[in-house]
Design the sequence.
């Protein structure tokens, strides 16, 4: 049953037939057909027309249950605060939100006394630019590790009009940036989300599955080029958040001793 569920995620798209699922799951067609029929009665799969099936409501319920208690919000926020102090920037945690099309949502932030008006972003921009996976280091750090089918869906969407002057308008350059992210493990952004602000982000993964990203933003006048110290701090925080997601505390009160 789990191998067939994983086959849906590997294939992407909305619905698939038993044959395609069998090849992806490395099972014979008859076995997959029996699993699909059993799963339909349990709400795990939904039968559509022309012999196609899609994942049902019981599948995301399992994921929601698994994510409901991990990581602990207090421990995650403590890591963001430590990142803010270590870098002198604004720290954010974004999570992948697939409902309504793959996008990102801000789950937490550590911004000190800032009220974010200094970013120069309108409320509309927050709802467009900050949700996009193709704009900003935080978005691209997630997009780089998603299946190609989901990447294609994201690239089919236009660049938000409110994006900064550094946003990738060309899909070829955007895809090349995703390759660089996978090669080095982090993303750099130059005035992508807002003019005058540069970024550094790293993906947060749980057992090979990208869940989100952690981001540091600093004014361009302060961080024209991202120093190694900021990159290392962002990568450490992403790794510590991943440990929290797997039930491995980073340290007392959520503070990682490596950040000190």
Sequence:
């Amino acid at each position: 049953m789990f191998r067939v569920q994983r086959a849906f995620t590997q294939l992407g798209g909305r619905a698939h037939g038993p044959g395609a699922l069998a090849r992806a799951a490395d099972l014979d067609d008859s076995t997959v057909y029996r699993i699909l029929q059993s799963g339909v009665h349990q709400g795990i799969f939904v039968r559509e027309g022309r012999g196609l099936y899609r994942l049902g409501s019981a599948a995301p319920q399992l994921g929601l249950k698994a994510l409901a208690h991990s990581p602990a919000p207090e421990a995650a926020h403590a890591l963001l605060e430590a990142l803010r102090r270590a870098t002198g920037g604004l720290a954010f945690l974004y999570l992948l939100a697939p409902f309504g099309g793959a996008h990102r949502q801000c789950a937490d932030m550590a911004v000190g006394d800032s009220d974010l008006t200094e970013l120069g972003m309108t409320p509309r921009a927050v709802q467009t630019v900050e949700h996009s996976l193709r704009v900003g280091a935080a978005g691209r750090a997630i997009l780089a590790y998603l299946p190609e089918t989901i990447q294609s869906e994201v690239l089919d969407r236009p660049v938000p009009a409110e994006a900064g002057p550094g946003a990738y308008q060309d899909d070829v350059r955007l895809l090349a940036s995703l390759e660089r992210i996978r090669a080095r493990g982090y993303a750099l952004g130059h005035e992508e989300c807002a003019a005058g602000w540069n970024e550094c982000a790293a993906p947060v993964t749980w057992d090979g599955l990208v869940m989100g990203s952690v981001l540091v933003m600093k004014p361009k006048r302060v961080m024209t080029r991202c120093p190694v110290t900021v990159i290392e701090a962002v990568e450490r925080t992403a790794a510590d958040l991943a440990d929290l997601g797997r039930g491995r505390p980073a340290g007392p009160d959520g503070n990682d001793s490596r950040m000190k």
In short: The chain has a mean pLDDT of 86. DSSP finds ten helices and seven strands in the chain. The first helix runs from residue 2 to 11.
